[in-house]
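ok trying again, last paste got cut off:
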Amino acid sequence: MRLVGLRDALELSAEEVAQTCGLSVDRYLSIERGEADITISNIMKIAHKYGVSADALMFAEEPTMRSYYVVRRGKGLSVERTRAYKYQSLTSGFQNRMADAFVVTVEPKGADAKMYKNSHNGQEFNYVLEGRMELYIDGKTIFLEEGDSIYFDATKPHGMLAADGRTLRLLAIAIE
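nice, full thing came through this time. structure:
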């Protein structure tokens, strides 16, 4: 509903927003109808292109803090992209930030699960808190265990799955 409201307020066509995300118009409209999931990277693309905060699109709240922003254990704003992915923002209340930090919880999928890949501007840091991650980056598959971390160029196609049938929790920081 927030995407529809943004398009309405800025008098944008679905074609314009779909092009910003690199999606077909049909795919974009299915996201607006709630029939398909939107990636965090596409939310960020829309926010940057149209001068709105990603927080407003994800959480319907604007950041207000300028000096510091504290998130107590388990209290960050969260969004569940699908039943398999939950993002808890650790930075949502800070204005004009240069990075976005999330605790991401990924539920395991079946053995034949497809990995969704995306890319976005900037760089990304992932630190595995719990579980095991299968991470694909630009044609290479890497497995990360609890306590492992990786820093990578987020413009390269990348995606992840929870490995070994266990829930995965990680700290993900996107820097643009």
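cool. Residues 85 and 151 are 20 Å apart (CA to CA). The chain has a mean pLDDT of 86.
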